[in-house]
Amino acid sequence: MNTLSYGLLALLTRGPRSGYELMQHIQPIWQAKHSQIYPLLALMEKRGFVQYVPVAQKDKPDKKVYSLTDEGIAALREWVPEPTGDPVKRDEMLLKVYCIGFIEPAQARQLFEERMRMYQCKIEKYHRMLDDLGSETVQAVEAGRMEHPGFGSYILLKRAIGQAESDLDWCRWVVGLLQLNPTGSVGN
Predict the structure, then answer these.
(1) In the chain, which ranges are E strands?
(2) Segments making up each domain of the chain, as ranges
(3) Helices 34-46 and 19-26 sit at what angle, rounded to 10 degrees?
(4) CATH class of the 3-79 domain in this structure
(5) Above 80 in pLDDT, residue 182?
(6) Listing from the earlier edge strand, what are the strands of the sheet with 17-18?
(7) DSSP-based helix, strand, coil % in the chain, nearest 5
(8) Could you give the dihedral angle defined by the CA atoms of residues 174, 176, 179 and 181, in that order, rounded to the nearest 10 degrees?
(9) pLDDT digit string (tens) for 62-100?
(10) Are 123 and 161 spatial neighbours (Cβ–Cβ below 8 Å)?
């Protein structure tokens, strides 16, 4: 099983979810597409890690609502304590920044300003998700009760907020640098 498979199992520890709901919930911590999630769910169902119940929908095909099995819980208990590798970073923006000298300063500012808007939207979204966890979760986290169902979600959202805020600050810093020489020449 790959890391995304374990991520899906982890999300199912919070209760049954459809493939679409799993995709929505995993986005803050892992980039995944429908085309990746559904085949993994089918594979995990064959291996006995998940099971599903078909749920009828009006004017749509039945959806499958997945839940975790005892075998899935056992797989998670085996996987979680294993050492992890280095984090994978795949950000197209960083490749563009590497050769930023090949575009006009105004284009570079626009690139960074668009990225700043994206980070601001993410920060707002993560704060809403944090608020949705409720005061009981905050109290449990502040008491160090990691067995609380919302503990992992809370600490991951705090990390995501911190990273987005740090990236936003970096973009602001770069925009400030770009404003020092707004008519700079383009490299080759």
Answers:
(1) 17-18, 50-57, 60-68
(2) 3-79, 92-180
(3) 120
(4) mainly alpha
(5) no
(6) 17-18, 60-68, 50-57
(7) 65, 10, 25
(8) -70
(9) 999 999 999 999 999 999 999 998 887 788 999 999 999
(10) yes
